[in-house]
Design brief:
Blueprint (H helix, E strand, L loop, with lengths): L1 H7 L4 H36 L4 E4 L3 E5 L3 E2 L3 E4 L8 E4 L5 E3 L6 E3 L3 E9 L3 E10 L35 E3 L11 E3 H18 L4 E4 L4 H17 L4 H9 L15 E5 L12 H9 L5 E3 L6 H4 L7 E4 L2 H10 L3 H21 L2 H9 L1
The structure holds zinc ion (ZN).
Zinc ion (ZN) binds next to β13.
Length: about 350
């Protein structure tokens, strides 16, 4: 029986093939273990070197408005695979570029800059954005954000230009109901008017406020026609009319911040000699208004003396223009000079030094 069983165990051709496959499989597994697994271990070692620490080069950065900062940060370990994003606590003060290479100052202020790396590693730095300043001994106009808009014979407004935010004048005397002004101009005039009437006991009315391009065009054309009817040739009539009535697009009444005042119903060269007119001429700047066409600036404004015409420019501008005895044409040149002077000064003094000097 035993011999019979042994005989049955004799290897067949099929068995040999099966054993060969088995042996080859073992060899393949050994080869994989010898070559591929160590490679995998090596890979996982690199992957495990993720960020453990993240820090900015400085704790506090100072930049000027308009300047771009490229902050450096350190990572630990140095070979770590990093996936860093940078964000600002207030994006109205700085903007962070899409590729994270730059942080640009938009307006003065302090923000916290946060860098975040994977997995969950953070670093913070403070960024102080500083406005460019004039040198301390400068007498140039302060660096207001708004450069005064100007309309005169050399500077035309677009025919379509209509100021935004106008309101109907209905809180102070006005010659023709429905006339309009910019809301801030009217609000400032209400105060000037109340103070002027209180101080002088004489009433005053607005006889012209906002004038559209088309309305101004009608005024100018009529004036030219009247002069020509009196025998003037067209060219001379236009030049003469332009001394008192600006062609369409060249009148600051189109800005919505200019008013003509009168104690009567029409413009009068005597306005500056009336009690209320004299008071307004002396005190307009305290309310943000300026006499737009002074007697001693006709060469620069291109307009004859207009004692009745005032323009709202805001308190800061008005104080400077009044105290320096200049007109708007001179003022906008000084505004440009101030911007240049501040740029030069900012190259001589760092934003950090400027912030430190202001803090003292
Ligand atoms: Zn006017």
């Amino acid at each position: 029986m035993k011999a019979k069983k042994a005989k049955k165990k004799k290897l067949t051709k099929t068995d040999l093939i099966e054993y060969s496959f088995f042996a080859l499989s073992i060899l393949l597994i050994v080869w994989i273990c010898a070559n591929q697994i160590p490679r995998g271990i090596h890979d996982s070692r690199v992957i495990r070197e993720t960020l453990t620490e993240l820090s900015f080069e400085r704790e506090h950065y100072y930049i000027y408005v308009g300047e771009t900062l490229t902050p450096s940060y350190y990572v630990t370990p140095a070979t770590a695979i990093t996936d860093i994003t940078v964000s600002a606590s207030d994006t109205s003060v700085v903007s962070v570029s899409g590729d994270l290479t730059g942080v640009t100052g938009s307006t003065a202020g302090d923000i916290t800059l946060t860098a975040t790396g994977t997995p969950g590693v953070k670093a913070n730095a403070t960024v102080t954005v500083v406005e460019k300043q004039l040198p301390p001994d400068s007498d140039l106009p302060p660096l207001y954000k708004d450069r005064l808009k100007i309309a005169n014979i050399n500077n035309a407004l677009d025919p379509d230009y209509v100021p935004e935010g106008m309101v109907v004048i209905d809180t102070v005397p006005v010659s023709v109901p429905g006339r309009m002004l910019l809301a801030d101009t009217l609000a400032a005039y209400e105060k000037l008017y109340a103070a002027a009437v209180e101080a002088t006991g004489q009433d005053v009315r607005i006889i012209s406020g906002y004038r559209s391009y088309d309305y101004q065009n009608g005024l100018f054309t009529n004036r030219v026609k009247r002069l020509m009817a009196n025998g003037m040739d067209e060219e001379t009539a236009k030049l003469t009319a332009g001394r008192t009535t600006q062609p369409a697009g060249h009148s600051e009444h189109q800005l919505g911040n200019s008013i003509d005042l009168s104690v009567g119903w029409d413009t009068s060269y005597d306005f500056g000699n009336t009690k209320v007119g004299r008071w307004i001429t002396e005190h307009a700047h305290e309310y943000g208004f300026i006499l737009r066409y002074p007697a001693d600036k006709t060469e620069l404004t291109g307009i004859n003396y207009e004692p009745w015409h005032f323009r709202y420019v805001g308190l800061g501008h008005a104080e400077y223009i009044h105290s320096h005895g200049i007109c708007v044409e001179e003022y906008v040149i000084l505004q440009d000079e101030a911007v240049t002077a501040a740029q030069i000064y900012s190259q001589q003094i760092t934003a950090e030094e400027l912030a430190a000097s202001q803090a003292q």
